[in-house]
Amino acid sequence: MSRTAAPRIALVTCRPGPDVAADGDLPGLVAELRAAGADATAEYWDEPDADWAAYDLAVIRSTWDYSWRAAEFTAWAERCGKATRLANPADVVRWNTDKRYLGDLAAAGVPTVPTRYRVPGDPADLPTDHEYVIKPTSGAGARYAARYTPAERETAAAHIERMHAEGLTAMVQPYLSGIDISGERALQYVGGRLVHASRKGAVLTPGTVYDEAKVAHPRLEAWKPTAVETAVAERALNAVPGTPDLLYARVDLVDGPDGLPCVMELELVEPNLFLSLHPDSVPAVAEAILRAAAR
User: Per DSSP, what are the bridge partners of residue 267?
Assistant: First the structure.
């Protein structure tokens, strides 16, 4: 692939639709990159006529429909990664689009939300002594996620049965009540450094049906992470298999029963960077993208 004076950069997104949130940060990031001299455009990941080899870099930004089409999306990432530099890389996409990665992090000693998995054909085997959460291993925006008490066993079992019927693997996690007090903190890394952090309230409220739309980021606010939060986030990043070169990462933390932060999710594919909440971070994000494009 020949390089031009102005690096060609694709910010990869998805087609708008009733079940997909709009990426409000995308126009501003494209404008910032263009102002810095890049030939930057927003492109749909599933555009059949896209020539990915024509770009110096493709940055996955808001492909927020991928969880409905996980196999198709990972296959696209493999093809795109062979045609040009893809951030984050295809092997990271493959690993991170299946939330069974939490087991890998736990095995590496990273504090994580305890998680059990139920593949199609497995019995529900639900907790009987505490509240819990059920969600799919491939999901975004709290899709197919719900919170249950032990008394709601029948409803919860039907939830798992529905997911299994669609070929989805279910995750069963204890509901960590600390999220109702201290919220969920998102530490965002770009170009290998922490650029900002945010905090949001609990997404799953009692009685919300699993297939009902949820507010993905309720009561979002800027947050100053503690030293302990930063240490846990960096342990998670250091445990990613293969120690890849990550252009961006978001580490979502909640407090465990001991009051210490643990990883709820490690977002390495298409995390919302919340740039509208942190506009001062936009130049740093653009600079990191430009550096990646120049490699």
Answer: 250
- pTM as predicted: 0.94
> Are 252 and 186 within 8 A, CB to CB?
yes
Number of residues that make up the chain: 295
Is the Cα torsion angle 64, 70, 76, 78 positive or negative in sign? positive
d(CA 148, CA 153): 8
Q: What is the pLDDT of residues 46-68, one digit of tens each?
A: 999 999 999 999 999 999 999 88
CB atoms within 10 A of CB 211: 11
CA distance 265 to 283: 26
How many degrees, rounded to 5, is the angle at CA 252 between CA 273 and CA 88?
A: 55
Q: Please answer whether residues 58 and 52 qualify as being in contact, where contact means their C-beta atoms are separated by less than 8 angstroms.
A: yes
What residue spans of the chain are helical by DSSP H? 26-35, 70-83, 90-96, 101-107, 153-165, 179-182, 227-238, 282-293
Q: Which of 216, 211, 215 is nearest to 162 (CA)?
A: 211
pLDDT tens sequence across 87-122:
999 999 999 999 999 999 999 999 999 999 999 999
Give dist(CA 250, CA 268) in Å, integer. Answer: 7
- pLDDT 10s digits, 157-193: 999 999 999 999 999 999 999 999 999 999 999 999 9
User: CB-based burial of residue 237 (10 Å sphere; 0-12 exposed, 13-18 middle, 19+ buried)?
Assistant: buried
Q: How far apart are CA 94 and CA 201, in angstroms?
A: 29
Strand pairing report for 184-190 and 132-136: unpaired
Residue with tokens 């990550």: 246
| Token duo for residue 146 | 């719900």
